[in-house]
Write a structure and sequence with these properties.
Elements lengths: L5 E10 L6 E9 L4 E6 L1 H15 L20 H20 L9 H6 L8 E2 L5 E2 L12 H27 L3 H36 L14 H33 L13 H7 L28 H71 L1
Helix pairs in contact: 4-5, 4-6, 5-6, 6-8
Length: 373
């Protein structure tokens, strides 16, 4: 049996990346080996409640706190704490309820940013890694829309995490938010692939139906085009967010070491650390020994060296991708050259046949001229 899932809202924060600040509630899922945290605002809980009611036909047992029309939680600590406690009771009621309909819905997975089809919540409120039948494509039109809603939620979460990452003040917060955004983008890319495969299957099953409504798994051409456009827009948005994440990482790596926390170790301090050891004067490569300092690493602390290493690895990855594209272009050029050579060989063969035919006619003409003389 999977370990029990403990869910809570231990703290709140104020998001200031937009022109109008708002309160975020930190929803924490605590497991023995890991912790998963998402930040949601009050409107997200309201949307979750509406989605759960729509999908299951019944609202959760615990009510959602009412909206205050006179006060805002940003400027009222008492109201913030009261709402935090009420929202915590709300999510705990969903997890601890004997009826699993709410925590098994796609709206609940999307709210917690859980990957669709790879992580579910069991009836005892625990996380299970049993995969659902979505990995080979979503062939049911209604389920396709549910997965697309999950995809939209993942994209929104990634966008929000990138905004929070840009406003974060410490390197630890930036790293954590970057990891969360990258995970959301990976889940979004996986969902796009599943939706694309599923749409192909739906389109194939809809062929031969003139109206497009001959069965529950058939769609008309117009609806298929509309869903194809939705997938194209989502794919472009994910690619744009991935580009923003890479640019943020590059910009962060370019920050000078003076802005980093902690003391900067000088070359003498690093040399004194290995003084008197066998690694102080290595005759060759020594595992764990000090490496030769360079102009880029001489004045960096541990955090700066780590960021520099990550930057170098990212640059190498980009170089590998660029090399792969170049190789692919060379392959295409080679195929085109081979096709052209094949055509040229055929043309040379035809020319050779024509030359032989003309030569034969010339020989006949010469023989006839010889007979005349």
């Amino acid at each position: 049996m999977a370990p029990a899932l403990h869910i809570s809202i231990p703290s709140t924060s104020t998001a200031t990346e937009t022109s109008k600040p708002y309160t975020q509630y930190h929803v924490v899922l605590q497991l023995p080996l890991r912790k998963h945290e998402v930040r949601k605002r009050y409107t997200d809980f309201v949307a979750l409640n509406d989605a759960l009611t729509s999908q299951t036909g019944q609202a959760p047992s615990a009510p959602i706190p009412a909206k205050s029309w006179l006060w805002r939680t940003v400027s009222n600590d008492a109201l913030t704490e009261e709402r935090r406690q009420a929202l915590e009771r709300y999510v705990k009621a969903i997890v601890e309820a004997d009826d699993a309909r709410w925590r098994s819905s796609s709206a609940w997975r999307a709210f917690l940013n859980l990957p669709s089809g790879t992580s579910t919540v069991n009836t005892n409120g625990s996380l299970s890694s049993t995969p659902q039948k979505r990995e080979s494509g979503v062939t049911d039109p209604s389920q396709w829309l549910d997965v697309h809603r999950d995809l939209t939620s993942q994209i929104q979460s990634a966008r929000q995490q990138l905004r929070q990452r840009e406003a974060a003040s410490t390197a630890q917060q930036q790293h954590s938010l970057s990891a969360d955004a990258k995970a959301s983008l990976i889940r979004a890319a996986t969902a796009i692939a599943q939706l694309d495969d599923g749409l192909r299957s739906i389109q194939a099953s809809s062929k031969g139906d003139d109206t497009g409504w001959g069965g529950s798994k058939k769609l008309g051409d117009g609806e298929i085009r509309r869903r194809r456009d939705l997938l194209s827009a989502a794919r472009k948005e994910v690619e744009g967010l991935e580009a923003d994440l890479r640019s943020m990482a590059t910009k962060s790596n370019g920050i000078s070491s003076s802005a980093q926390t902690g003391a900067v170790a000088s070359t003498g301090d690093k040399a004194a650390l290995w003084h008197g050891t066998a690694a102080a004067k290595p005759s060759g490569r020594v595992l764990g020994g000090p490496l030769k300092e360079t102009a880029r690493t001489r004045e960096l602390d541990n955090g700066g060296v780590l960021q520099l290493q990550q930057q170098v690895m990212e640059e190498q990855d980009e170089d590998v991708l660029s090399l792969g594209k170049t190789v692919a272009k060379l392959k295409d050029m080679g195929i085109l050259i081979n096709e052209e050579l094949t055509i040229q060989n055929e043309m040379l063969g035809l020319l050779d046949q024509d030359a032989e035919r003309v030569q034969g006619k010339i020989d006949v003409g010469r023989r006839r001229i010889g007979k005349i003389h």
